[in-house]
Design goal:
UDP-n-acetylglucosamine1-carboxyvinyl-transferase, Chain; 2 domains; five-stranded mixed β-sheet; four-stranded mixed β-sheet; 14 helices; about 30% helix; globular; binds uridine-diphosphate-2(N-acetylglucosaminyl) butyric acid; Enolpyruvate_Tfrase_sf; UDP-N-acetylglucosamine 1-carboxyvinyltransferase
Length: about 450
């Protein structure tokens, strides 16, 4: 078993480069299925989920040329792609569901294993299913698989989402770009990753209006062409570093993501006592795809508590929730966090309590009373963000913290340990023996 061993406390100082967003690149890779030929995606982070998506596309018949160091993935899409995404891969990564829309759109058929619930909540897929049905597909659940078919192809429709689901918006847009006629998605999600996918689809020849708004209008086209596309920077990874700077009283320059992708987040960090400014050569409104826009975050001696409600973009992202709780756990006062997206994102809190954090949970609220200092302990990561949140807590704690479940962190954070070391943290990845009495 591998664990991250952290000797805290540490204030992080230095500069970091953030590459493309996990939650965009996986969907961009799925979108390549829409056009036969060679598409190339750049600014790809070296994370485990990218390797899983490469394997998924390979099993659908694509040729993959992945250069982790250069950060590029070339996908050679055949004229006939396979239609089955099996459970072995889907269970490793829920984002596998994002091949459903492109497969039904292009092949008029798909069989995609249904991912189960996970550590952050039940995570329904009804909007994906009902949306595809509105577009004329028949979708049934058979032996744990969504089996979708539309022998005559999809046709445009009006779809109103009951909630701006990121995954459903993406799947429906990717299905609609090759449908006959016009599709309107009302109450669409507006995350920067969705903007990124829409831009790539437009570059492939799709017709999409309202990009970045909650009303997307897609006019179907006959076919799409392969493309080269640079993935948008990872605002959640950038946000992770920004929280680390403020919570540890450090000073981090963060390149690869402009301030404009973190509305609300940087305001909250300023309330916590952080000082934020653009790095030289950056325009804070800078294009999301610019090569190296960035900002610098400096933390106070001790943070002030912050009150946060998670909401769909441009609201405060649920994926940064564990960092809010970690920061509040050492803040000078009481902070309240309200989680509005995932009902079970609290497993992290039990672990944080092992470090001495004072958190009480009531429904979807977490009330955190800051303590002077945390004390290192052994804890276990239950998902990507919880894992990174526990590492941050370990940096705040006195003594040694060991975080297990590091495979979760590897799914979303590239070179996490080397980057933390470069910023001055005392952290290493160590092998621990599994218990031998089981
Ligand atoms: N929902 C439904 N039915 C649906 C779809 C969603 O009830 O058909 C519910 C979910 O159960 C959840 C809420 O709607 O309560 C939001 O789900 P959404 O579909 O927006 O999320 P997602 O597409 O499954 C993506 C990210 C998550 C991120 C959320 C919210 C990817 C691969 N994942 O998930 O990222 O938390 O959007 O922003 O894009 C992470 O990166 O660690 C992560 C969990």
């Amino acid at each position: 078993m591998e664990v991250f061993a952290i000797d805290g406390p540490a204030a992080l100082r230095g500069e970091i480069v953030v590459r493309g967003a996990k939650n965009s690149v996986l969907k961009l890779m799925a979108a390549t299925l829409l056009a036969p030929g060679r598409s190339v995606i750049s600014n790809v982070p070296a994370i485990a989920d990218v390797r899983i998506m490469c394997e998924l596309l390979r099993r659908l018949g694509c040729g993959i040329d992945y250069d982790a160091a250069a950060g590029t993935v070339a996908v050679e899409v055949p004229t006939e792609v396979g239609i089955t995404a099996d459970y072995e891969l889907v269970r490793l990564m829920r984002a596998s569901i994002s091949v459903l829309g492109p497969l039904v759109g292009r092949m008029h058929a798909a069989e995609v294993a249904v991912p189960g619930g996970d550590a952050i909540g039940s995570r329904g897929l009804d909007m994906h299913q009902h949306g595809l049905e509105r577009l004329g597909a028949q979708v049934t659940l058979e032996h744990g698989y969504f089996v979708a078919s539309a022998p005559a192809g999809l046709r445009g429709a009006e779809i109103e989402l009951p909630f701006p689901s990121v995954g459903a918006t993406e799947n429906l847009v990717m299905a609609a770009v090759l449908a006959a006629g016009e599709t309107v998605v009302e109450n669409a999600a507006r995350e920067p990753e969705i903007v990124d996918i829409c831009r790539m689809l437009v570059a492939m020849g799709a017709r999409i209006e309202g990009i970045g708004t909650s009303r997307l209008v897609v006019t179907g086209v006959e076919s799409l062409a392969p493309v080269s596309h640079r993935c948008v920077g990872d605002r959640i990874v950038a946000g992770t570093w920004a929280f680390a700077a403020v919570a540890t009283g450090g000073d981090i320059g963060i390149r690869g993501v402009p301030q404009a992708l973190l509305p609300n987040v940087l305001d909250k960090l300023a309330e916590a006592g952080g000082r934020i400014e653009d790095l030289p050569g950056t325009d804070s409104q800078g294009s999301a795809t610019a090569e190296a826009p960035g900002f610098r975050v400096r933390g106070p001696r001790r943070p002030q508590p912050i009150h946060v409600s998670t909401l769909p973009f441009p609201g405060f992202p649920t994926d940064l929730q564990p960092f809010v709780i970690a920061l509040n756990s050492v803040a000078d006062g009481v902070g309240l966090l309200t989680e509005n997206l995932f009902e079970a994102r609290w497993r992290f809190v039990n672990e944080l309590s092992r470090l001495g954090a004072k958190v009480s949970i009531d429904g979807n609220h977490a009330l955190v009373t800051g303590v002077e200092s945390l004390s290192g302990a052994e804890v276990e990561a239950s998902d990507i963000r919880a894992g990174a949140g526990l590492v941050l807590a370990g940096l705040l704690a006195h003594g040694r913290t060991e975080v297990s479940g590091v495979d979760h962190i590897d799914r979303g954070y590239e070179d996490f340990v080397p980057k933390l070391r470069a910023l001055g943290a005392s952290i290493s990845r160590i092998e621990k023996p599994e218990p031998d009495f089981l």
